[in-house]
Every structure is written in C-alpha cells, then in structure tokens.
Fold:
Amino acid sequence: MQGRLSAWLAKHQLAHRPLGFDYQGIEILQIRPQDWPSIAVALYVYGFNYLRSQCAYDVTPGGGLASVYHLTKVQDDADQPEEVCIKIFVSREDPRIPSVFWIWKSSDFQERESYDMFGIIYESHPRLKRILMPESWIGWPLRKDYIVPNFYELQDAY
Structure:
C-alpha cells in the first residue's frame, strides 16, 4: 500500500519501498543505505524538519540489523503534524549507514547509542564513539548473538 509520501518519492524517482502503515497510520518506508543521504535531504526539503527519534534493533539472531528514523513535519499551524518512519536494513557483517547528523543535529547522540549497542557504523558522523559503554568494552551488547561476559571476569578487571 502506497501512502502520500511514498507517491511523492516515486514521482521524484527516489528509490524506496513502502512497508505500509503502523497502528497510528504513520507511513513506514524502507530505504537502502546508499540511497539514504539523497532521500534524507529530499525529506528535509519536503518539510520533515524534526528528527523525533532514531533507534536500532537486531532483526534476527545472526541476521541483519535495522536503523529506524522517526521524522515529523513541524509547522506552526499543524495540530496533527505529518510523520514518517524510515527503516534502513544492513548486514551484520558490514553495518554501514550514512549519518544524517548534517541534516538533523538531534541524531548525534542517538546514532552514537545505536553504534554503541549494535555496532552500526554511521559514516561521516563527526563523533562516532561509545556513549554508554566504556571505550574498552568489547562487542555490541544489544545484538541477539552477544555473549555476556562472566560477571566475575568483569569484576576482576576492575
């Protein structure tokens, strides 16, 4: 099912895949990582001037990873602002997605958290480093295939 934004992107020949709507009627689009920079700029020009949230998740154990962006079109006279959910799927072996820090500054800490927990590399992010875990931490704690270090091994490390 194609929504209004998907039709607009198709009209402008921007590659995407409509995934339907969520329970609130928000359109969900899948974007390939290599298409994300140009589509992000197009969405900003379209009016999506606010990145409400960015998160990531592990799709399946040993499978792919996903980065999710929730964008909102904030206007003075809008009591029901238009929203869209963008999903970008990457392989676990090479989890690279272009950063949108240069478009939405609010993605700074959010992309860093996704990097810290899942190991997704946001290319061209100005400060991509761990934000929650110590710099010396090994692995990506929220991946489904993550093996938790033995508590006593960690205790001995301090």
In short: The chain has one domain: 4-157.
